[in-house]
Amino acid sequence: MINKSIRRIVIVGGGTAGWMTAAALSHTIHHEYTIQLIESDEIATIGVGEATIPPIKIFNASLGIDEDEFLKETQGTFKLGIEFVNWHQVGTSYIHDFGRAGHDLNGLPFYHYWHRYQQSVSNAHGLNALSINSMASKHAKFMRAVPDMPDSPLGQLANAFHFDATLYARYLRKYSEAKGVKRTEGKITSVTQRQADGYIDELILENGERISGDLFIDCSGIRGLLIEQTLKTGYEDWSHWLPCDRAIAVPCSSASPLLPYTRSTAHSAGWQWRIPLQHRIGNGHVFSSKFMSEDEATDILLKNLDGEQLADPRTIKFLTGKRRKLWNKNCVAIGLSSGFLEPLESTSIHLIQSTVNRLISFLPNQSIIQADIDEFNAQADFEYDRIRDFIILHYKATERTDSAFWEYCKNMEIPANLQRKFDLYRGNGRVLRDNNELFTDTSWLQVMSGQGLRPKDYPPLVDGISEQELTEFMDEVKNVIKKCVDVMPTHEEFIAKHCAANSMPK
């Protein structure tokens, strides 16, 4: 074995990925390791990943970060879910939220009862009316879950955050440097590899400085300086399933009310995001250049802002897919260097978090073992594939026929595992979660039903209660949620009381 001891960790690139990695490693591993991060102020980061999903709370808490302080420092707001507008058909909308819909009954999942209810009751309540996260979103309300009320909807609230990604990276840099991470400013001009095994040996900076390491973490963004440009790892192209390949981003001034959710509005060749922060709204138009010009996409975006435009639009080009290996030799790709999944379900920052956590669990000691690399990559492949399938669902399950883009999406072939989920749902409304994949059965249910999929039947055990009992059950769920939402403060009131930012960021 060539490696005798793995103790020098070098992170290439800052931004959200680099500093999340540095923060997690510096908090977790002991002092025998050294952690060095190389970044250049001259190289811009994409910095549009401002919406998250609930696991970010676990990441921050594991670092001992105070939530209110973090939100103040990052101009953050709370997120209860995502509203999807015009996805099923033009004029329709639904919310995919982070909470629960109803509650199970007689040992059977709630959604089976809801499917029967939808089929048998003419004025049945929609799924969003039976979830406190969705109803709080619709009324711009927010509060943290009440732990000592586990049986109440108020105890079941689940949230993530919106925040300024640049400010979050800055916040984590301060945290990491206090934990001993060494930051080196500079551009990498070349990379040397060991002749014996092709492992990365040294990074050579523009000023001539040479930096060696045992384990290199590539957070250099889409270009993949180490994982691709140096190691030639290869890339899986998923654009035949997810044809969008451009995003135009622009901030605008805030608008009232302050909404506790992200909004995704489908247009004729893609979709527009709306992310409300304390000091501004983040906006962007994700689109396919095969079906729409950049000028047209920019025009659509700027005509659909809620406030004054605050900067020039910025175009980001990407190819949806992932590296064939996230870990290759002595290099691990984290963030956009590992692949790109469009931000439709706010998974970009989560994939940084989960890959860092996986690396910590597989962190090598005396040498790098191929079996560890293989298992790490297998787990990463599973996670990426399942998130990819969930995003494809939004495009495939549509009744839009108003453009060539939507016709393509509606008629395209999809991965076999996603087709299996479609078939199970269309049959008896079954929603199966594979091996603790990221998105829960409630998430699949909300998107499948919101996109217009309807099951032909439901499991026979659901017929164990009468139609009147079923109606009363649904009415009770809806009424309890309404009473809970009525007593909640507005999102704006909650932030003003607990975590309002002190000043505008510089």
In short:
By secondary structure, this protein is α+β, with helices and mostly antiparallel strands.
Total E-strand runs: 21
Unreliable residue stretches: none
Distance between the termini: 50 Å
| Gyration radius, in Å | 24 Å
Q: With helices defined by DSSP (H or I, 4 residues minimum), what is the helix count?
A: 14
| Biggest sheet layout | 7 strands, mixed
Average pLDDT over all residues: 95
Structural class estimated from helices and strands: alpha+beta
In terms of quaternary structure, what is this? single chain
- Roughly how much helix do the residues carry, as a percent range? 25-40%
Beta-strand content bin:
15-25%
> How would you describe the shape?
globular
Order of strands across the main sheet: 5-4-14-15-16-13-17
Description of the structure:
The protein is of the alpha+beta class and 506 residues long. It has helices at residues 15-28, 55-62, 67-73, 110-120, 132-138, 165-178, 294-303, 348-361, 370-396, 404-411, 416-428, 441-450, 467-487, 491-498, and strands at residues 8-12, 34-39, 77-79, 81-85, 93-97, 160-162, 182-185, 188-193, 200-205, 210-212, 215-218, 235-237, 246-252, 262-267, 270-276, 281-287, 314-317, 321-323, 327-328, 331-333, 339-340. A hairpin with a 2-residue loop joins strand 19 and strand 20. The longest helix has 27 residues, at 370-396.
Write out key terms for the chains shown:
seven-stranded mixed beta sheet, about 500 residues, alpha+beta, about 20% strand, 14 helices, single chain
